[in-house]
Write a structure and sequence with these properties.
D-amino Acid Aminotransferase, Chain A, domain 1, alpha+beta, 6 helices, 2 domains, about 170 residues
Length: about 170
């Protein structure tokens, strides 16, 4: 990739974000690190390639590309992976979360995590730091995986204290 060549990156983990525009792809940003937001786990769920393990092995001098190609060449059913995040619609203090067990039981869901624990501050969605939970899921299609992740998040109920005497259930 031209961007990585320009900064002299030849080996190692990188994360480049691209947006597809009407005039073609445009680079948003690039980093010399693995992607965040559970991207390595999404890739593992969908492809069987453990990116974190590959980075460690490559760091100690192993060649990882042949192993990646071998995993990708294996006969396996196609799988898609998706993630869906939840954010609080109001700012305040998270007092309780319910529905986690139900969320984890949704067919296809591989992980549900709280990013803010009860007692922690929450804000309205302003950035990725505003997220309060996520669900990761797999499916035969991207739509199935995304539907499962969304369904899991829909099963969570957050109680947020917005003022000393008020509690709002969202």
């Amino acid at each position: 990739m031209i961007v990585l060549d320009a900064v002299g990156v030849e080996v190692g983990a990188t994360h480049t974000e691209i947006v597809l525009t009407p005039t073609g792809p445009r680079v948003i940003e690039t980093h010399v690190r693995m992607g965040g937001d559970e991207i390595p786990s999404l890739a593992l769920d969908a492809t069987g390639v453990d990116l974190a393990e590959c980075v460690v092995r490559q760091t100690v001098g192993e060649k990882v590309l042949p192993g990646i190609r071998a995993v990708l060449a294996e006969e396996r059913p196609a799988r898609c992976s998706a993630i869906w995040f939840a954010a609080a619609p109001v700012a305040g203090v998270l007092t309780d979360v319910s529905g986690i067990d139900d969320a984890r039981k949704v067919d296809g869901v591989t992980d549900v995590q709280l990013l803010v624990r009860p007692g922690g501050a929450v804000t309205v969605l302003e950035s990725s730091d505003s997220r309060v939970a996520y669900a990761r899921a797999v499916g035969d299609t991207a739509e199935q995986a995304l539907d499962a992740a969304r369904e899991a998040m829909a099963r969570l109920e957050f109680q947020v204290r917005v003022a000393a005497a008020n509690t709002v259930t969202v």
